[in-house]
Please model this.
Amino acid sequence: MEQQEFTPTRILVVDDDVKLCHLIREYLQPLGYDVMLAHSGPQGVELATREVFSALILDVMLPGYDGFQALRKIRASSSVPVLMLTARGEESDRIVGLELGADDYLPKTFSTRELLARLRAVIRRSVLSAAEAAPKPTDKVAVGEIAIDPEARFVTLAGAPVVLTTIEFDLLLTLARAAGRVKSREQLLLEVAERNFDVFDRSIDVHISSIRKKLGDDPKVPRYIVTIRSAGYMLRRPASEPPS
Model:
């Protein structure tokens, strides 16, 4: 049986409201997030500076030291996106947080849909910023019969050209570069960041279905793109090919 790796998007929630922390975790985990919890300023800083996260959700009112002090310490060594929570919501709090390096602010009267939208937005901005700063890989990618030329934006299947839309091409290239490993829908939404996806956008599934048709793939017995239940999608690597 082929190895299937799946790395969810890691989030740290720092809030002394234990019930709220667990509600956030229960909401985000099915969407492809790995959520860790901390309930004090010192604990949050220790985790945020020791481990790697895609984003932090940081409360202003914390024991030990408050969210502003925690943010100042985190920013001394990390540029991780930070979404701050406040029960008070005064403009002065928002200004202080933003000046210290918070990426966005959310009052504690938030809905889960708004939390997800803002969380996705701060992560997406971080991903885009990193992508703009990094050199674009132009090496050709080959997985079995599928060959992709990123520079020419050209795909062939067993030597025959495959015509894909811009988003379909980017999705297939992302899956090909991670061949043999699972990409969650959330990761695909973030990595194919050409457009502003809606909070509960399921168009990733529509695009994957279209790619499958163009590859002549049967979703029930896939040769190429495999659906991993409750996780996401994976481009199958032929058994004869070594893992990358």
